[in-house]
């Protein structure tokens, strides 16, 4: 059976909320510090149970979060030379049992380990087979015997699922695995929205299944992924999102393999093929696939054009008249090696639109990707009008990346064009060209090259209005003596005792809720009467809710987590932000979007403004944050809070509220100043304004 979990000095430091140097000092100064059980002299490992016991005995850890305990068990099950994502598959399969057959776990949970070690994996395998079929059983390969570590993990997962729900629990596990390069849900939702309401969707490079998750619930979903563990995790994500009473087997079909070299189903035709393929792969199989029947229009993709090979693969799997949408690097629109194939896509009318997206829409996040939209020609229908929509969505983006604006710009332009409506030219944003106008020596399809320059926004009167609003705001901010609290040094005295949000939750002083991956969303502009959704970006940037629930208001009240006055909202990523909901605020009654925590304090025990001020502080979040390569994740239950009487809390809370209002004013002044400076620059540069 697997040994008990082991942790390194870095992981001990994360558990205790200290630096690695502190752990090194503990080893030197405390004779009772646990001895290493593995690793090397330079990087020893320690038994997790011994470390937890020692930290609690020393008062250096208040609690070990449930998710962290699950992660430690997963680490213990990970094979050092195997696929690092492999332990997530049996964990997800067990969560599927909890989701679709909870009565089976209820019947087995009290059994002794000797019987459970055989009975539980058998039950999991039976549920996987019944829900997803034999092919999924072969893909997931659930173990036939559970060891002590696996059984302990299952018990922890049962607690986590009871706390968060099975689907959200699995999303939390995947978040700790830090898989990079995955398509964000907002980009996946945009691809699906462009396809309308397809009855079948294929993603031949599906990763963790973001596109398939965004597809309509009643659509048949197909996917293919090179990495077996990633494919299995995607399948489990989809199955866990299905309603508990959905018909069996679920219409989910995921295969393992390189879709170019080993097409899982050459005869498959889907209503929509939506994909972000691999980029810049020179060894994609050009020689062996030279005469492949998927190359439509008798055009073999050049060796230097792997992305166009993926495009033709996707188009070959699209039913006639169906939509193909791919996120591609901008160089695909202009590389000379692909000009003949681009020209053929224009001549046949297959290529319908090239849309330039701003950097940050999808990985790699520093590159402004292009979105290519194609419809496979139908030989039974009249030849399509050979026109191309060119759209540059970067021109409509504010300084902060804004998904609702991007979603609206792209959908409005595409739906008008695809529906046959005459699309009026919008300088700098979009225009429609006859394909023959693009057939030159380069056949460069980059939207920016063919769009007329944008006109300057507003005029002298609009800029004068901005100037006046900015002057008023700056004048009010200058009166800092009235806006900000007066402070003095604290006299020496005993240290204020501390507690954690987790301990406050256990004592009943507040409730803690987490939104996980959040509910299904749509743009708020589509239905202003829908329940608004506050996203983590809305909270960080201080803007109003930017999205809406995809479900009806009645369904939202039954299932969504809605903010109410007195709640404190905190982003799960980044830290340093916290919002107190007041009556009539834009956040009052809004649903929580992805990656948000909601704290609901008892006002008779805990002041919301005091709590929010502590969460905004550097010290408050430092000990509760874990860091990935570019982001930090806040474990809100580990945030430390001073133990103060309610009167002292309210006094500090009033000061924190005034400081927060001052910060909001500064942010508004910054945005107004940016708009004014850009408007003046554009007006003078374009000749629409003059000095004087």
From TrEMBL:
Pfam families: N6_Mtase (PF02384)
Domain DNA methylase adenine-specific span(s) in chain numbering: 184-395
GO molecular-function terms, A-Z: DNA binding; N-methyltransferase activity
InterPro entries on file: DNA_methylase_A-5 (IPR003356), Restrct_endonuc_typeI_TRD_sf (IPR044946), SAM-dependent_MTases_sf (IPR029063), Type-I_RE_MTase_Subunit (IPR052916)
Highest taxon of source: Bacteria
Any one GO biological process: DNA restriction-modification system
Keyword vocabulary terms for this entry: DNA-binding, Restriction system
Keyword Hydrolase: no
Name the record gives this protein: DNA methylase adenine-specific domain-containing protein
Organism: Kitasatospora kifunensis (Streptomyces kifunensis)
